[in-house]
Amino acid sequence: MRRRKDKAAEQALKKEQTKQDLKRKSATKEKIPNIIIACEDEASAPTYFKMLVAQLKSSRKITPDSFVIANHTNTHPTGILEDLKKHKCGFSRKTYKDFRHKWIVIDRDKERINGGGHSTEDFNNALIQARRLRVEVAYSNDAFELWYLLHFHYVDSAISRDNLLTKVIEKLKACNASKFVHLDKDTIKQTDYAKYIFEELYTLQDTAVKNAKRLMDSYGEGHNPESDNPSTTIHKLVELLNSLCM
Description:
50% of the residues lie in helices and 9% in strands. By secondary structure, it is an alpha/beta fold. It has two domains: 1-27; 32-244, no CATH class. It has a five-stranded mixed β-sheet, with helices on both faces. Helix 4 packs parallel to helix 5. The N and C termini lie far apart (52 Å).
């Protein structure tokens, strides 16, 4: 009889432990960051953000589908929004609507005489449509590389995409000539170099955030994302990701 009581008590204890385990798992699940990002390019921006949250994955604070970079099929602003809307996550089949934080990362990339770039209409439509869908926008005027440059110093003078790339390449080579010996306007868009750049700039991130905020504050309430060069809101997404890492 005593053995039966002991066994019953043991089973009751196991049930209680199971309940507590389920509660802990549920609480942990609620704390998991839930964010999806669609990027305009295939290397620079997605690599930067993936590396920024790598520490979350290593500590198992996020699941494979709680931080997602949407499949990349388009290269223009409204197309990036479509990439976000169409993305489905593996077995869970989650869509962008299932995420707490929804972002697109786009460039103004003003149209160039020799071809390339985005029209004013497409860029502005992306901002309007994103607002309607409650999607946040991290944009750069003229290009994502402005975010790189702000790690080195404050800039508030208009700068073309080509000149921006030139300045960033010069700064990186000055920091580490051997690592960036083959860095140019083509290789800077490659994933391997995007990783090197993140590693080189990581300790300067606070400077970049400070400079980006100062730049945006300089425009005041009349800021126009389409025409104000330089400008960027990349720092807002960076700050969000950093807050999720805590």
